[in-house]
């Protein structure tokens, strides 16, 4: 019995030490990833100097500025260093923050392409990278972020076309891509984004026919495609599935034809903005049935008739 008892204690101790070592290794991995980010930043401004001093190995990662750790595993679950005038490129080690749920680097001066290793952040739900100088083509590996709910890449220098793999993010609710250089069409695969509520791709270089498949996403509340080069007509079926839509912005494109009376089927519309197109004909009486409409922008078209 003594030998059995000793063997059990020895085995238990080995397991305990192994778990402890793994735990230390994990938090050390998080620390190394954040230090790699710190070291990529150019220390040319006061916020960067503050961050360089605060992110020190003499203190716990969980006490660092902008860092949030989970209460259970004590791993980094959120990183928010937005609006700090930080400059630098993003290191591949960020992909090692395997417990990360939210990453907010917005309103800085980060540049370069997104490291492919970010595809390893399988727990990520919120990714905010807007108002930076990031560029390159939108990566196809976005499709690996199956839990992502919000993706904001506005005000950067992303180019190329929209990757169809974005449709693999089945939980995506919000997609902001304003002020980039994205070209081509919206892939038909986007119709599989059944949770999408907000789609904003203003001031890009989208072209081709109006992506009617997008208007089949019944969860959409906001569609804004201002200042692109989209063409075609507004079909009679445009509002058949959009009973939750509150904002429709298609101004500054190359749309032609008449305004369909079926726009009144978007009964929750608060804003209807179709200026700077080539629409013609009468303004349909049915627009008057939009009882919660607050803003109607139709200027710089070839519309005629009177408002009812």
TrEMBL record:
GO CC annotation terms, alphabetical: plasma membrane
Keywords: Cell membrane, Glycoprotein, Leucine-rich repeat, Membrane, Repeat, Signal, Transmembrane, Transmembrane helix
Membrane topology of the entry: Single-pass type I membrane protein
Domain of life: Eukaryota
Subcellular location: Cell membrane
InterPro entries: Leu-rich_rpt, Leu-rich_rpt_typical-subtyp, LRR_dom_sf, LRR_N_plant-typ, RLP23-like
Annotated ranges, domain Leucine-rich repeat-containing N-terminal plant-type: 29-69
Primary residence: membrane
Signal sequence coordinates: 1-21
PANTHER family given in the database record: LRR RECEPTOR-LIKE KINASE
Family affiliation: Belongs to the RLP family.
Stated name of the protein: Leucine-rich repeat-containing N-terminal plant-type domain-containing protein
Species in which this protein is naturally found: Coffea canephora
């Amino acid at each position: 019995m003594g030998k059995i008892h000793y063997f059990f204690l020895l085995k238990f101790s080995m397991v305990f030490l192994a778990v402890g070592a793994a735990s230390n290794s994990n938090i050390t991995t998080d620390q190394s990833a954040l230090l790699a980010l710190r070291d990529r930043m150019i220390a040319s401004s006061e916020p960067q100097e503050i961050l360089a001093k605060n992110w020190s190995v003499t203190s716990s990662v969980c006490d660092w500025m902008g860092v949030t750790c989970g209460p259970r595993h004590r791993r980094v679950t959120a990183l928010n260093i937005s609006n700090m005038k930080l400059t630098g490129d993003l290191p591949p080690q960020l992909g090692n923050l395997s417990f990360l749920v939210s990453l907010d680097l917005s309103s800085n001066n980060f540049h370069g392409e997104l490291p492919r290793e970010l595809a390893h952040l399988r727990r990520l739900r919120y990714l905010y990278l807007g108002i930076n100088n990031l560029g390159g083509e939108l990566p196809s590996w976005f499709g690996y972020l199956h839990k992502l709910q919000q993706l904001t890449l506005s005000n950067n220098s992303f180019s190329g076309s929209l990757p169809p793999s974005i449709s693999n993010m089945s939980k995506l609710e919000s997609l902001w891509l304003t002020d980039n250089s994205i070209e081509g069409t919206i892939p038909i695969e986007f119709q599989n984004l059944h949770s999408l509520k907000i789609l904003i791709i203003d001031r890009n270089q989208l072209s081709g026919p109006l992506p009617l498949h997008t208007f089949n996403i019944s969860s959409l509340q906001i569609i804004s495609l201002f200042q692109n080069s989209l063409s075609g007509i507004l079909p009679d079926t445009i509002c058949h599935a959009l009973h939750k839509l509150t904002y429709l912005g298609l101004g500054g494109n190359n749309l032609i034809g008449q305004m369909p009376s079926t726009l009144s089927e978007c009964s929750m519309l608060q804003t209807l903005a179709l200026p700077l197109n080539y629409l013609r004909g009468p303004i349909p009486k049915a627009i008057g049935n939009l009882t919660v409409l607050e803003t109607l922008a139709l200027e710089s078209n070839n519309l005629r008739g009177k408002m009812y």
